[in-house]
Amino acid sequence: MRAEPFRDPKGVAKYRHEVLAVVFRVLADTPSLQVLAWQRHHEPFAGQWALPSGPVEVSETMRDAMERHLADKLDLVAVRHSEQLATLSAPLRDPAERTIATAYLGLVAEATEVVKGGAHWFDVSTLPQMAFDHDEVVRLGAHRLRGKISYSNIAFALAPDEFTLAHLREIYMGVLYHDVDVTNLGRVLTRRHQIEPTGHRTAPGQKGGRPARTYRFVEHSLHITDPFAVLRGDQKR
Amino acid sequence: MRAEPFRDPKGVAKYRHEVLAVVFRVLADTPSLQVLAWQRHHEPFAGQWALPSGPVEVSETMRDAMERHLADKLDLVAVRHSEQLATLSAPLRDPAERTIATAYLGLVAEATEVVKGGAHWFDVSTLPQMAFDHDEVVRLGAHRLRGKISYSNIAFALAPDEFTLAHLREIYMGVLYHDVDVTNLGRVLTRRHQIEPTGHRTAPGQKGGRPARTYRFVEHSLHITDPFAVLRGDQKR
DNA sequence: CCAAAAGTGTTTTGGATACACCCATGA
DNA sequence: TCATGGGTGTATCCAAAACACTTTTGG
């Protein structure tokens, strides 16, 4: 039986509000885009995989709530960029009680592991069935990330502090899911002042090969670097 | 005195949730981007201008609630495109009681008037002081629209069904707030199959001049026409 | 010397811009 | 035929892409 909503004296309904986190990392080797999920212990959807989530407390913003839940339940504090994705309001999306949920996109660097709370990283391309509408939220997050990586410096949040161009290429390939030319990637990002050489080089691999220069992202906060695809005009009136 | 939140037996807080609508139109003559606001009658912020808003009912989605409030309070049913903008959760944004609000961007065609409910169209560039955080929401909406008009066909929702290129240019100028070249605008939108000629022409103006062809948008739903600014690769793997 | 990996140089492409010029109408 | 506004043609620009070639390393 579905719970009746709370109403205040004027008859205005009150709802449970929770935050969801779609946390992505990219493994360069495969390369693949992975999302963090954990197994539910309680009904509804007990035993199924779900995104990290939790209610919003009275004196915190939704972003605070999202960070708090990731830290408390999963010991995850290494989120390097987060932004609001969407708010879900289908009346029956939670079978127990009407719950409005705001989803956040979170990005962590490649090496990030999560040991606590039975969490697991899943390839976005082979996602298991998920609780609630969480599959849809993951797809939405992947779509947002794919769009933004082309016209912003959002990759700073997925890459380590220091990386080679070959490594960065694999991160881009994991997100975009198509081939990316290393040479041109380096030139585009350099022209846009997104990356700069550190002056260091890596040790060459076991099978030889020229040692690669390493680079870093110039900014570690989100910047739109290609603001208007077209119709730029002369920006004067 | 601030109201205490409702809590269920397990101690989970429940919140008032409302929807906000940032409804834009563009007047071609000026040209200017205008937003719909109305004057509040009750505290808090009585007498100040505010965006149309209202609570979400138990069995409706937020989009339904937004459309319902616009129709009931302002007789506005001509919204040609709407999309979710953001959800606002600052704990003190509503001085009376914690209220989480989800803002929608709505677009109507130029001629759209609103007669009911004491509503008024304001130029976004000369916005009055607004209730709550509504100024910020208007700016967010304008920013979203400005970005999207360059890489999607979103202008279909602002233009009349049939228009001349000169007219469409003024709509783009109202949104982008910089000069747009008519010739190139027509060519870009034609190449992207966003617009097509209707085969009609307008009557020439009072002072003469060649009669203009009219055009229509091919699609009347949102399509991204310039999906990846760069790093397109060959789309093969 | 060869294989492997990184990096450079150079050409090509194609959408977008700029702008000169031509066309159709009213007075 | 002139003023006004619409439309066409074309040269130019420039970021991005493609790809051949050179450099630096280990074996």
**Structural classification of chain A:** alpha+beta
Unreliable stretches covering 5 or more consecutive residues of chain A: none
Number of domains of chain A: 2
Note the gap between the termini of chain A: 62 Å
Largest interface: A-B, 51 and 51 residues
How much strand of chain A?
Answer: 25-35%
Largest sheet of chain A: 8 strands, mixed
Total of helices of chain A: 4
Shape of chain A: elongated
Radius of gyration of chain A: 21 Å
Overall pLDDT score of chain A? 91
Provide the helix percentage of chain A.
10-25%
Structure commentary:
The structure is a homodimer of 237-residue chains. Helices cover 22% and strands 27% of the residues of chain A. By secondary structure, chain A is of the alpha+beta class. The first copy, chain A, folds into 2 domains: 6-150, Nucleoside Triphosphate Pyrophosphohydrolase; 151-217, Winged helix-like DNA-binding domain superfamily/Winged helix DNA-binding domain (Arc Repressor Mutant, subunit A). In chain A, the strands form 2 sheets. In chain A, strands 1, 2, 3, 4, 5, 6, 7 and 8 form an 8-stranded mixed sheet that branches. A two-stranded antiparallel sheet of chain A has the order 9-10. In chain A, a hairpin with a 5-residue loop joins strand 1 and strand 2 (13-27). In chain A, helix 3 crosses helix 4. The radius of gyration of chain A is 21 Å and the shape is elongated. Chain A starts with 5 loop residues before the first strand and ends in a 20-residue tail after the last strand. The mean pLDDT of chain A is 91. At the A-B interface, strand 2, strand 6 and helix 2 of A face strand 2, strand 6 and helix 2 of B. Strand 2 (13-27) of chain A pairs antiparallel with strand 2 of chain B. The first copy, chain A, binds a DNA duplex (27 and 27 nucleotides) through helix 4.
